[in-house]
Write a structure and sequence with these properties.
By secondary structure, the protein is α/β, with parallel strands linked by helices. It has helices at 12-16, 32-35, 51-54, 75-80, 93-110, 127-138, 148-151, 160-165, 213-225, 246-249, 264-281, 311-321, 325-338, 340-345, and strands at 2-6, 21-25, 40-43, 62-65, 84-86, 119-123, 142-146, 169-172, 201-204, 232-235, 254-255, 301-305, 357-363, 368-374. Helix 5 (93-110) crosses helix 6. It binds nicotinamide-adenine-dinucleotide and 4-phospho-D-erythronate (DEZ).
Length: 377
C-alpha cells in the first residue's frame, strides 16, 4: 500500500506507518508521475487535485485533504473515477476562532476600544463561525449572523448588506465558491465595500478570494487620501497565495500567512480524521488516537481571579497563550526573504485553550476564587 502524504501533515508516521509505505511530498511540487504509483493520497490545501495531477493514476483509491477547505479538490472528477474522497471538517475550527478573538483583543488594545461596546458580524456560520459565535457570546459580545443557507430554515440571521452596514467588526468564515445561489468569490467587492462603517474592523480568515483584494486596497487608499478612518484590517488569507498583494500589507494591522488554523491541535485533528477515514476505507479497526500522541503542555501557573476584573486581565491571559502579533512580525520581517510557504512550513508551535489545564482554587480565608491555568511557555 503506497501512501503519499503532504510533508506538512503532522503525526503522519504515527498514524499511517503500519498501514503501508509512506512517501512524503512538498504540496506544491507533487507530480502526476508520483501519483501514478499511489494507492492513497493525503494532501493539504496547496495541492490542486485535478485531471492534470491524476492523469497517470492507476491504483489510486482514496484522496483525503487534512483541511476544512475543499476548493483545491475536483470532487466531481474523483467521483467519476470512483476514488473515495474525504476532508477534515471542523478540524481547526477552534484554532481559527482563537486566532480571531486574539486578533480582536490586539485591535481593542491598539485602538483603545472595549469589545463589549461592539457588534460583530460573522459571515458564514458553519463549524468555524459557530465556534466563534459561542466564544464571543460567552464574552458577552453582540453578534449578527449572516449565512443564506442556514437563513432558509433558521431564525436570527441577517443578509449580507445588513451584516456589513450594522457591524463594527466583520469577520469572514465562508468557503470559497464560485457557483450556487450564494457564491463567495469576491463576496466583499467594490460594489459593497463602501457599506462598511467608517470605524470598522475587517477580518478574513476564510479564503483570500472571498474578498476582492484590489478593491480592498483601493478602499484603503481612498480612505487615506480622504483623511477618513482606516479600516482596522486583519488578513490571514490572501488572493493568489503564495504571492499576496504586497501593497495591501501596509494597510493591514495584523498580517499572517494563512495560519489561523495552524494550532498543533487543529493540524493534528486533521491527520486523525483522515486516519479514521482511511481505516474505514480499508475496513481496518481504528487503533490510533490523537490524545495519546499530543504532548501534554508543561504546567506553568498563571493564577487569575476567575471573575476577571477587566478586559485587561482577560486580554493578558489570552495573549499569553497566543498573540497574533508574533505571526504579524514574522510575516512582515520574513515574507520577502523566506517566502509565504516557508512561513507556513516553519510555523512555531501554538497550542489551543483546549489544551490548557484549568483548575478552580478557592482561597477561603480571603473568600476569593482563582482560576489556575497551566500551559506551555
Ligand atoms: N485561515 C485558515 O487557516 C482557515 C482554517 C480553516 C478553514 N478556513 C476556511 O474557512 C472556511 C469555512 O470553514 P468552516 O469549517 O466554517 O466551513 P463550514 O462548511 O462548516 O461552514 C461554512 C458556512 O458558510 C456558509 N456560507 C456559504 N456561502 C455563504 C455566503 N455566500 N454567505 C454567508 N455564508 C455562506 C455555509 O452555509 C456554512 O454554514 C473553509 O471552507 C476554509 O476555506 C480557513
Ligand atoms: O482549509 C483549511 O483547513 C485551512 O485553510 C488550513 O489552514 C489549510 O492549511 P494548508 O492545507 O494550506 O496547510
Amino acid at each position: 500500500m503506497n501512501i503519499f502524504i503532504d510533508e506538512n501533515i503532522p503525526y503522519a508516521e504515527d498514524f499511517f506507518a503500519e498501514l503501508g509505505n509512506i512517501t512524503r511530498f512538498a504540496g506544491r511540487e507533487l507530480t502526476a508521475e508520483q501519483v501514478s504509483v499511489a494507492d492513497i493520497l493525503l494532501v493539504r490545501s496547496i495541492t490542486k487535485v485535478n485531471s492534470q495531477l491524476l492523469n497517470q493514476a492507476k491504483n489510486l483509491s482514496f484522496v483525503g485533504t487534512a483541511t476544512i477547505g475543499e476548493d483545491h479538490i475536483d470532487k466531481t472528477l474523483l467521483q467519476q473515477k470512483g476514488i473515495t474522497f474525504t476532508s477534515a471538517p471542523g478540524c481547526n475550527a477552534i484554532s481559527v476562532a482563537e486566532y480571531v478573538i486574539s486578533s480582536l483583543y490586539v485591535l481593542s488594545e491598539k485602538y483603545n476600544f472595549n469589545l463589549l461596546d461592539k457588534t460583530v458580524s460573522i459571515i458564514g456560520v458553519g463549524n468555524i463561525g459557530k465556534a466563534l459565535q459561542n466564544k464571543l457570546m460567552a464574552l458577552g459580545i453582540n453578534l449578527l449572523l449572516c449565512d443564506p443557507e442556514r437563513d432558509q430554515t433558521e431564525e436570527d440571521f441577517v443578509d449580507l448588506e445588513y451584516a456589513l452596514t450594522h457591524a463594527d467588526i466583520v469577520t469572514f468564515h465562508t468557503p470559497l465558491t464560485s457557483t450556487g445561489k450564494s457564491p463567495t468569490f469576491h463576496l466583499l467587492n467594490e460594489e459593497n465595500i463602501h457599506l462598511l462603517k467608517q470605524d470598522v474592523c475587517l477580518i478574513n480568515a476564510s479564503r483570500g478570494e472571498v474578498i476582492d483584494n484590489q478593491a480592498l486596497l483601493a478602499e484603503a487608499i481612498r480612505r487615506e487620501k480622504q483623511n477618513e478612518l482606516p479600516i482596522k484590517l486583519v488578513l490571514d488569507v490572501w488572493e493568489n497565495e503564495p504571492t499576496p498583494l504586497l501593497e495591501l500589507i501596509k494597510y493591514t494591522d495584523i498580517a499572517s500567512a494563512h495560519i489561523a488554523g495552524y494550532s498543533l491541535e487543529g493540524k493534528a485533528r486533521g491527520t486523525e480524521m483522515l486516519y479514521q477515514s482511511v481505516c474505514q476505507h480499508l475496513n481496518l479497526p481504528i487503533v490510533k488516537r490523537l490524545d495519546k500522541l499530543l504532548p501534554v503542555p508543561s504546567v506553568t501557573n498563571l493564577v487569575l481571579n476567575n471573575e476577571y476584573q477587566s478586559e485587561t486581565q482577560l486580554k493578558a491571559a489570552i495573549h499569553l497563550v497566543y498573540d497574533p502579533r508574533r505571526d504579524d512580525a514574522l510575516f512582515r520581517n520574513l515574507l520577502a526573504k523566506n517566502g509565504f510557504d516557508w512561513l507556513r512550513k516553519n510555523y512555531p508551535i501554538r497550542r489551543e485553550w483546549s489544551s490548557l489545564k484549568l483548575e478552580r482554587i478557592t482561597n477561603n480565608e480571603k473568600g476569593l476564587n482563582f482560576l489556575k491555568i497551566g500551559f506551555d511557555i
